[in-house]
Design goal:
alpha/beta; 2 domains; six-stranded mixed sheet; 270 residues; Rossmann fold; single chain; four-stranded antiparallel sheet; 10 strands; 11 helices
Amino acid sequence: MNAAAVLEVEHLSMRFGGLLAVDDLSFTAREREITAIIGPNGAGKTTVFNCLTGFYKPSVGRLTLHHPRRGPLLLERMEGFRVAQIAEVARTFQNIRLFPRMSVLENLIVAQHNRLMRASVYSLAGLLGLKRYRTAEAAAVEVARHWLDRIGLTGRADWEAGNLPYGDQRRLEIARAMCMGPVLLCLDEPAAGLNPSESAALNRLLLGIRADHGTAILLIEHDMSVVMGISDHILVLDHGRRLADGTPSEIRANPAVIRAYLGEEEEDGA
């Protein structure tokens, strides 16, 4: 039996002047699953993410997030900051966007800013040192330290984030997103620039997030060792349209995908 849908994308199109970047795209991402979006450069993958997270308003389409507490939310009608705050959709970017001069620990605490601001009654309780704020602050530090332990950076909590090795920065960015407690985690090429050992560590982290937290993950990725190693479902785009979708084994065997993306099939006797 299929898991319940956490995200339903229906007839999404995004046009920039005369360019149709996404063309009538529909797909579903489900609870406790990792859904990968793959395709050649320019296929429309990041444009899909930008529509989901409020950076772009779709030209056409409905983007429904099924929130476990708030019910169905139409992302296409929400401002970007509300997609993060209300819908609880967290995102990382292809280019790392940590706060490089903040410590590793501070990067994880600042991700919980909205929760702390509510607890502080938008600074009043914080300024007065009230118990409700002190409790929330201690909880935020506890969450941050949990994720430091998960990504193996407890011993570097006080380092400036910009001084971490590249692979550690990638994992820190994912941990920062998880500190928000997302319903849906959107990762834009998290394995970009990683060596095989770091990619394997990334796989373990994402599989652990799915197993331990039940977080639905939507993943854009070119590294097929990551995509095929951890995905429950794969969506293949080509020129903004859906070329195929299915399980990793189905995608590996799909002739259209092999021709367009994974490489031409070898002819018999070649």
